[in-house]
What we know:
8% strand
Amino acid sequence: MERLTRASIIAALADELRSKGSWCGETHLQKATYLLQEAMDVQLGFDYILYKRGPFSFDLRDELTAMRADGLLRLRPHQQPYGPSLDATDLSKALRCRLEHGLQQAISFIAQRLGARGASELERISTAYYVMHRDLPGASADDQAHRITELKPHVALNQAHAALEWVKDTEQAARSERLTFTV
C-alpha cells in the first residue's frame, strides 16, 4: 500500500476514534489499527507481535513518528499522569478525501466498537483476537480464555471470557452490516 494512503487511513482512524470518545493515545491507535488490519482485512502491511500490552507493531510506532515529522499527526500533551494523545492535522484531512467508501465504513465500525474503551480493555480485546485467530484458532472458548490469562497474568479469567465474547459479538455485527471480517 502506498505510504500516503496508509497515513490517511491512520489519520482517519485517529479522528474517528476521538469522535467516539477515545483518548487516542498511541495504545489506542495500536490496538485499533491492529483490529482494522487483521479483523477487517485492511491491508496496511504492519507486522504485529504479542508484546507487553497486547499486539504491538514497531513498524506502526515508526509510522506514527514519521507522520508527526511530516505534519500529518500532532501530539496533544495532557497533565500528568496521562500521556499525550495524537490528533490528525488539517494536512492529513486533505489527504483523506480520497478514501474509498468501504474503507471509511470499516474505519467507522472499528472506531465505534473501540472508541470509549480504556487501554486495559483494549489490551484484553486485541489479545483475545490474537489468541482466537493466530494462537489457538479453533480451540474452545475455555482454552482460549485460559491462554489469555497465561499470556497476560493480570487479566482475570472472567475478563478473558468477556473479551472473547466481545470479539465474537463484533464479528457478528460486522457480518450483519456486510463488513468483511477475516476469520
